[in-house]
Specification:
Elements: H1 97-111, H2 121-131, H3 154-166, E1 194-195, E2 198-199, E3 217-222, E4 227-229, E5 242-246, E6 249-252, H4 256-261, E7 267-269, E8 274-277, E9 291-293, E10 298-302, E11 315-317, E12 322-325, E13 339-341, E14 346-347, E15 363-365, E16 372-373, E17 387-389, E18 394-397, E19 411-413, E20 418-421, E21 436-438, E22 443-447, E23 461-463, E24 468-472, H5 475-478, E25 492-496, E26 500-501, E27 506-509, E28 512-515, H6 533-536, H7 567-574, H8 590-600, H9 613-625, E29 651-656, E30 661-666, E31 680-682, E32 688-692, E33 699-700, E34 714-716, E35 721-724, E36 738-740, E37 745-746, E38 748-749, E39 762-764, E40 774-776, E41 782-784, E42 801-803, E43 818-820, E44 825-828, E45 842-844, E46 849-853, E47 866-868, E48 873-876, E49 890-892, E50 897-898, E51 900-901, E52 914-916, E53 921-925, E54 931-935, E55 941-942, E56 957-959, E57 966-967, E58 981-983, E59 988-989, H10 995-998, E60 1014-1016, E61 1036-1038, E62 1045-1047
Parallel strand pairs: 3-5, 4-6, 5-7, 6-8, 7-9, 8-10, 9-11, 10-12, 11-13, 12-14, 13-15, 15-17, 16-18, 17-19, 18-20, 19-21, 20-22, 21-23, 22-24, 23-25, 24-26, 25-27, 32-34, 33-35, 34-36, 35-37, 36-39, 38-42, 39-43, 42-44, 43-45, 44-46, 45-47, 46-48, 47-49, 48-50, 49-52, 51-55, 52-56, 56-58, ...
Antiparallel strand pairs: 1-2, 27-28, 29-30, 31-32, 40-41, 53-54, 61-62
Helix pairs in contact: 1-2, 2-3, 8-9
Length: about 1050
């Protein structure tokens, strides 16, 4: 079956770094969006439907039918290539310039001088309102479009158009559906819909709560590629209740005008952007504001006291910023506050001691700051506290006795402070519900009351080392470490050796890990890197030829005798990996070339006293390792005609679709600070935090020394021609949040060290097998990712990455949100530990050789929206509790060896849009050994389609063909009004198509050519008999016996 429908989803598009700032260093550098001419490369799947993942797109422009819309692409240095065509769309009928001048005068109180800048979004929005707005206006004498200036909605329509232009609407992942269209702004994407306090996106006449037809909701969701600064004019939208733009590219500050104008705002969500400054004081005493997410930005300065004035605030998430100062005492007066998270800032002072029994606080998190003094005793009066985290501060004193009465406390993290005293010894309520207790690295003393944990089967974490606690851990507790105890397993148990007796614990002595007891191996926290066969299997080997250390006649611009400044020795001792030395290294080795460049060519003349010596060497090594002379954008430029290697130019330009202009950068290996080189992202203290070289024709192997960028959070090298293995050292980088290597020609096993990358939020190593991409090297040789090592050393096809990557220990990936493994050769089973990936949203592992059954633990992933496991060797049934995955939108399990009935609980997943269970595979053992597999409609999913299918009112695609499913089609399927694709052919479904289903053909169940949308076995059976399934409204009919299908309509 050829399926060519389904939405486009860029949820994990490759040019979107996951921004999590780590205090105390926070970058104030605005994000930059790059656009290159790299090709779009889809998945290798034969079926290319459903959410198509533009993982390798490089901000491909979206054509926008509006005034003066221009699409340009910065061309390669290839005379045979010409720029992309430009397209101008002139409004019809022509509108006089007088109208535009009147509009500018009308809008001047809103936007002021910004309207005079032709490059400003304000000007562009006004111009669109004047010349290109397609909304019908029947009051014009000539007919035509555009609102009258005295229309009550005129300013609002301008502000919404301004929002579109200011935040790079043409490049939104959603495609900007409806924006700048002829419909009311209430119908535009992100406006239309329901949120708390706002039904339908705009105030309706029946609401009786404000001015009707005024926007009350802008919910752009997450990962939607919004790029720019929030325009202050949004404050004009005085009925705003809900505002959401998360995990995107907002930068600058939050305008004060929002606090002034949005007096009815209930929810404000701008987490994980690039915003800085503070929270507007104009929101002070706002009585409606209930939820604020400002986490994962670059906010700095004193923690806003305005938060303490929001009496109805319920949820405040401000973690991962750089706020300083104290937590306002007024926080304790916010009786409705349930969740307060200020983890990972630079805050000081003592914790507020103004809590009482009327506080509703459930989750109080202040870890990774510099709070000092004792814990607030009044917090013990709170009745509903479940999670209290204050790790890695400077808190002193003992655990207040008031805390002993906590009855609902589940998680207590006080590790790495300066606390002392004893733990409660009696059978206090404190222990009753405790699941996670981490108090390591303090000065607690006395007996550890182990008896309080004997029957606490919910306990997951018990971390006690680095204290003076004594006692014995019993065999009963040790038995809880058994990995087979999926639901009652104790995941972490640490003690101080010699003080607490324990045969199963991870033991520490004076803060250092000493041992773990079998069969529970210690996590890999460090590894001695040598040229052992084990590490050699990962790739790069040190050559034995003795060519001496780097020497060259010094550049006349550089100081003499730089060879004797200790630079080489420092790099050799701190950066080079796997016991490599410059002595005996091949002169063409990239490590040698980078050292030679630092010593003899680089005009910055860095010395051993320069803080950036190490990172400059590593970044230069990346250039020499990946043939920077041949890069598409901003590679190393040299003039070879004059016989030298002097730079011709240090500047390069890349077309930025967000601003419709060229962005200036510095080329690699230029004299400029490496933070200004194209694709290098630094914090404001000059530390490299990200490297982004997407679709840039990189050729070569990733150097393991890149792991010495110790503060790197984001590495994106996708859409290139990288080959070889992934260095295991990358898996040990302490701050790595996002790794995107998909769309290359990598091979070998995913290193085991990656299983300990606990901060990873996005791991995308997909598209290594069957990925056809050609890059040219500077010497004229080309490589093709279809072949091993790019085809340079043979013609064997590249199998992609391999290894048993999803077997036990994946629980360390607890922060992971996106896991993309598809189109590789990964094997093994999927561990039950996958249930520990609680943050996982996107899981794509299709087109591999995973085997075994689908683990029941998968159903515990409450945030997952996509599960793609098709085209593997998975067998058995779908877990019966799959209905617990309440946010699941897309489930694809086709072309596996699965069977049994579709679980009844599946029909309770109200958000489900795509269900692909077609083409079940049947395998049988052959005499020669092994198995022979084929698609056989007599094997696979059985049972019937439940009448509960009507619950799936968001369902768009249902593919169950080539399975022995039987029974009839229930009439309740007519409730699936969004159904656009239905394949029930080559099954045992009988009867006829109910009228309720046929009526959907007049709605979404149709296509442009009306072919392929509704398949059934409605062709005369065996060419002559009555149809197996009677259908007057099918688009395509199949013969149930011969399996032949033809178009019917």
């Amino acid at each position: 079956d050829v399926v060519t429908t389904g939405p486009t989803m860029n949820d994990l598009s490759t040019n979107q770094p996951t921004m999590i700032t780590k205090a105390p260093v926070v970058s104030l550098k605005e994000p930059t969006r790059y656009t290159t001419d790299a090709p779009f490369i889809p998945s290798a799947d034969v079926v290319t439907t459903g959410p198509i993942m533009n993982d390798l797109s490089t901000n491909q422009p979206t054509t926008l039918a509006s005034f003066d819309a221009t699409i340009e692409v910065f061309p390669r240095d290839d005379p045979t290539m010409s720029p992309s065509p430009t397209k101008s769309i002139n409004p019809t009928p022509p509108v006089s310039n007088d109208r535009f001048l009147q509009i500018l005068a009308k809008l001047e109180p809103l936007s002021g001088d910004a309207l005079t800048d032709r490059n400003s979004p304000q000007y562009r929005a006004a111009k669109w309102i004047s010349d290109a707005d397609p909304i019908p206006n029947y009051s014009f004498v000539t007919g035509g479009t555009g609102l009258n200036l005295d229309d009550p909605g005129f300013e609002q329509r301008y502000v919404m158009a301004l929002f579109y232009f200011a935040l790079d609407g043409p490049n939104w992942s959603s495609g900007g559906s409806g924006w700048l269209g002829e419909e009311s702004v209430c119908e535009w994407y992100g406006v239309k819909g329901n949120s708390d306090g706002c039904t339908g996106g705009c105030i309706e006449r029946s609401d009786y709560v404000g001015d009707y037809d005024r926007v009350c909701r802008i919910a752009m969701g997450k990962l939607n590629s919004l790029f720019g600064q929030i325009p202050s004019e949004l404050g004009y939208l005085s009925e705003m209740r809900w505002f959401e733009i998360q995990e995107d590219y907002l930068f600058g500050t939050i305008p004060d005008a929002l606090g002034t104008g949005w007096t009815k705002l209930h929810t404000f969500l701008v987490g994980h952007n690039f915003l800085h400054g503070g929270f507007p004081p104009t929101f002070q005493n706002n009585e409606m504001l209930g939820t604020i997410f400002v986490d994962g930005n670059m906010f700095n300065g004193t923690f806003p006291s305005v938060f303490g004035t929001l009496k109805n605030l319920e949820w405040l998430d401000a973690e991962n910023n750089a706020f300083v100062g104290e937590l306002p005492a007024g926080i304790g007066n916010l009786k409705s506050l349930r969740i307060l998270n200020v983890n990972n800032n630079n805050m000081t002072g003592t914790l507020p001691d103004t809590w009482d029994e009327n506080n509703l606080i459930e989750d109080f998190e202040v870890a990774d700051n510099t709070f000092a003094g004792p814990l607030p005793p009044s917090l013990g009066k709170v009745k509903f506290l479940k999670d209290f985290r204050a790790s890695r501060n400077k808190i002193t004193g003992s655990l207040p006795e008031e805390y002993y009465k906590f009855q609902d406390l589940e998680e207590l993290y006080l590790d790495e402070n300066q606390m002392s005293g004893v733990l409660p010894q009696t059978d206090e309520p404190f222990y009753d519900g405790l699941q996670e207790l981490s108090i390591h690295s303090n000065e607690f003393s006395g007996r550890f009351p182990v008896e309080n944990f004997e029957d606490t089967f919910r306990l997951k974490v018990l971390s006690l080392h680095g204290n003076q606690l004594t006692g014995t851990i019993t065999p009963n507790i040790c038995a809880r470490l058994d990995p087979s105890r999926a639901y009652t397993r104790l995941n972490e148990l640490t003690v101080e050796c010699g003080l607490i007796e324990c045969e199963c614990c991870t033991c520490y002595e004076n803060g250092q890990l000493i041992s773990t007891s079998p069969p529970f191996p210690a996590p890999i926290s460090s590894i001695l890197l040598t040229d052992s066969p084990t590490l050699a299997n990962h790739g790069l080997m040190i050559q034995d030829a003795d060519f001496g250390r780097p020497t060259r006649a010094p550049n006349s611009l550089l100081a003499p005798n730089r060879d004797d400044l200790g630079i080489l020795e420092q790099i050799e001792g701190t950066i080079l990996q796997r016991s490599a030395t410059f002595n005996g290294m091949d002169e063409n080795d990239p490590r040698y070339l980078a050292m030679d460049w630092i010593l003899h060519i680089d005009e910055r003349q860095v010395t051993v006293d320069d803080d950036n010596l190490s990172q400059r060497y590593v970044i230069a090594l990346v250039a020499f390792s990946l043939d920077s002379l041949a890069w598409y954008a901003c590679g190393e430029h040299r003039d070879f005609d004059n016989g030298g290697e002097e730079f011709v130019v240090e500047d390069c330009e890349v077309w930025n679709m967000a601003t419709s202009q060229y962005d200036s950068h510095k080329i690699w290996l230029s004299r400029a600070d490496e933070c200004h080189w194209y694709g290098v992202i630094c914090s404001n203290d000059g530390v490299v935090r990200g490297v982004e070289l997407i679709g840039n024709d990189l050729v070569g192997s990733i150097p393991p020394e890149i792991s010495q960028l110790h503060f790197l959070q984001y590495l994106a090298l996708n859409g290139n021609c990288l080959y070889g293995t992934i260095p295991p050292e990358i898996g040990m980088m302490p701050d790595l949040r996002s790794l995107e290597l998909h769309g290359n020609g990598l091979s070998g096993e995913l290193p085991a060290e990656f299983l300990n990358a606990s901060k990873l939020e996005l791991l995308n190593v997909a598209l290594q097998y069957g990925f056809d991409h050609v890059c040219y090297m500077s010497n004229g040789t080309y490589v093709n990712t279809l072949f091993e090592q790019g085809g340079l050393y043979g013609s064997n096809y590249n199998p992609g990455l391999s290894g048993r990557v999803l077997e036990p220990k994946v629980d360390k990936w607890a922060s992971l949100k996106g896991l993309q493994l598809f189109d590789n050769s990964f094997s093994g089973t999927i561990s039950e530990d996958i249930e520990d990936l609680k943050e996982l949203v996107f899981f794509r592992a299709h087109n591999n050789v995973f085997s075994g059954y689908l683990p029941a633990g998968l159903t515990n992933l409450k945030k997952v929206r996509e599960v793609y496991l098709h085209k593997n060797q998975i067998y058995l049934d779908i877990p019966s509790h799959i209905g617990d995955m309440e946010n699941l939108e897309d489930l694809r399990l086709h072309e596996n060896e699965m069977f049994d009935d579709i679980p009844d609980s599946l029909y309770s997943i109200r958000k489900l849009k795509y269900l692909w269970l077609q083409d079940t595979v049947y395998c049988e053992e052959v005499q020669e050994g092994g198995y022979e597999c084929s698609i056989d409609s007599d094997f696979g999913f059985t049972g019937t389609i439940s009448t509960k299918i009507g619950n799936l009112d968001k369902l768009q695609q249902l593919l169950i063909n080539n399975n022995p499913i039987s029974g009839i089609i229930p009439t309740e399927i007519g409730l699936c009004e969004n159904l656009a694709l239905l394949h029930i052919h080559k099954t045992n479904i009988v009867g006829s198509a109910p009228i309720e289903l046929c009526l959907l053909r007049e709605k979404s169940l149709n296509s442009e050519n009306d072919v392929g949308v509704f398949y059934a076995d409605c062709r005369p059976n065996n060419k002559t008999q009555a149809p197996f399934f009677a259908c007057d409204c099918c688009s395509d009919c199949c013969d149930h016996t011969t399996k032949v299908c033809i178009a019917d309509d």
